[in-house]
Write a structure and sequence with these properties.
Layout: H1 2-5, E1 9-13, E2 33-40, E3 44-45, H2 52-59, E4 80-89, E5 97-98, H3 100-117, E6 130-134, H4 143-152
Parallel strand pairs: 1-6, 2-4, 2-6
Antiparallel strand pairs: 3-4, 4-5
């Protein structure tokens, strides 16, 4: 289980789709970097919350995409942040779902990335990564949400 393997914080957020994410209320600790799993496809985006070193590290695992906004943009932080694609489909709709095959593949990639960089401050600023997943109210019934939350909660 991920919760047994990773010593991380899990932040569940809401209202990201209206650019009023509850992530803005999270009290940040001294994190090395922040990872979020809330994106269509299989690429990653950083919303300019990055460094050259962070982008290079991410580029060894994923394609770097372009994104406009996500929960991590609402956080008051100087550390590098990444939003990892997990295969969302029909995002922000009552019919949204995730491709389980893509989700599994991205978690496997992330575990390797995490094992490689968990103690590194890729932005040169802080100490232990935060893993977050944004949950829209209509997605709560999905099996992958129950699995990920159950596996990553401390």
């Amino acid at each position: 289980m991920l919760s047994e393997r990773l010593d991380v914080d899990l932040l569940l957020t809401d209202h990201e789709e209206s650019c009023d994410s509850t992530a803005q209320y999270h009290t940040l600790k001294n994190y090395n970097w922040i990872a979020e799993f809330d994106r269509e496809g299989e690429d990653v985006v950083t919303y300019n919350l990055d460094s050259k070193k962070f982008l290079t590290a991410l580029g060894d695992f994923w394609s770097i995409g372009i994104g406009a906004f996500s929960d991590i943009c609402s956080m008051q932080t100087d550390v590098c942040c990444v939003n990892i694609g997990i295969g969302h489909q029909l995002s922000h709709s009552k019919d949204s779902y995730v491709c389980i095959k893509t989700l599994r593949k991205q978690i496997e990639r992330f575990l390797i990335f995490y094992d490689t960089y968990k103690i590194q401050s890729l932005s040169g600023i802080i100490e232990s990564p935060l893993i977050r997943m944004s949950l829209l109210p209509m997605m709560i019934h999905l099996n992958f949400v129950t699995y990920v939350v159950g596996s990553m909660a401390n």
